[in-house]
């Protein structure tokens, strides 16, 4: 885990990836209202910084991650990389994807079972017309991903590897293009507990050795605790709490973050069971989007701001490194 000082140093560096006012809306099916999967997000990822994007299934975090990579075009809002707006022509996206790479959660599904490890890692080089020594580049990427000696893996097929080795091959396939940013979607969700720590340690080492930035998408706050410099907690299309990971996870302010943390074994508190319906991006409620399931509002502790919770929308949180929370109960003094 990074110290507060280290976090402060990293988050003060230049912003590598920046999103402002991002919305992604999908048409509803059979006359249903449109689904607002991402409903107003500002987010920055600094050079050499690891940001964890956390939230339960259906909150919009994977859609947000894919839009940041140019895989899903936003309905509105802007995305900038290294200070330049993201363009959506085929040539511009191809160039961008050399600098920003996706690592998926299921290495078995990411790797073609008919391709050797060498071909799997070399695929990106061939797509981008790499003019250097392909064999040397593939060997270097495999070595950086922890598969040594790399030549021993060249002619192996995915079914001949362990789950952890397959995930390392997927990471090597991203590293071979020497990207500046990796977006890892649940990078250890399909791995055994004994291997998870190895992959997380690898991502941290890559950040330290290569200056690599990363957005790690996860539902696991324990993972965020172990790897991230900063965390953004997402609920129903919007970030509801953000800040340095130690600050947010040791003293969560938003009731949703508190509920997510309560189920961790080391939390020391009784698990919070959320009531109400799971998030539905086609039916975002008025006011605070969490109010229908909020345990604080249900307990009566937030009675003084209940009308605000149910009727007054909250602003989009700043995307930078400052601690911020979107909650009437936290941000307004109770009256009466």
Automatic annotation (TrEMBL):
<dbReference type="InterPro" id="IPR050319">
    <property type="entry name" value="ABC_transp_ATP-bind"/>
</dbReference>
<dbReference type="InterPro" id="IPR003439">
    <property type="entry name" value="ABC_transporter-like_ATP-bd"/>
</dbReference>
<keyword id="KW-0547">Nucleotide-binding</keyword>
<dbReference type="GO" id="GO:0055085">
    <property type="term" value="P:transmembrane transport"/>
</dbReference>
<dbReference type="InterPro" id="IPR027417">
    <property type="entry name" value="P-loop_NTPase"/>
</dbReference>
<feature type="domain" description="ABC transporter">
    <location>
        <begin position="19"/>
        <end position="261"/>
    </location>
</feature>
<protein>
    <submittedName>
        <fullName>Peptide ABC transporter ATP-binding protein</fullName>
    </submittedName>
</protein>
<comment type="similarity">
    <text>Belongs to the ABC transporter superfamily.</text>
</comment>
<dbReference type="Pfam" id="PF08352">
    <property type="entry name" value="oligo_HPY"/>
</dbReference>
<dbReference type="Pfam" id="PF00005">
    <property type="entry name" value="ABC_tran"/>
</dbReference>
<keyword id="KW-0067">ATP-binding</keyword>
<keyword id="KW-0813">Transport</keyword>
<dbReference type="InterPro" id="IPR017871">
    <property type="entry name" value="ABC_transporter-like_CS"/>
</dbReference>
<dbReference type="GO" id="GO:0016887">
    <property type="term" value="F:ATP hydrolysis activity"/>
</dbReference>
<dbReference type="GO" id="GO:0005524">
    <property type="term" value="F:ATP binding"/>
</dbReference>
<dbReference type="InterPro" id="IPR003593">
    <property type="entry name" value="AAA+_ATPase"/>
</dbReference>
<dbReference type="GO" id="GO:0015833">
    <property type="term" value="P:peptide transport"/>
</dbReference>
<dbReference type="InterPro" id="IPR013563">
    <property type="entry name" value="Oligopep_ABC_C"/>
</dbReference>
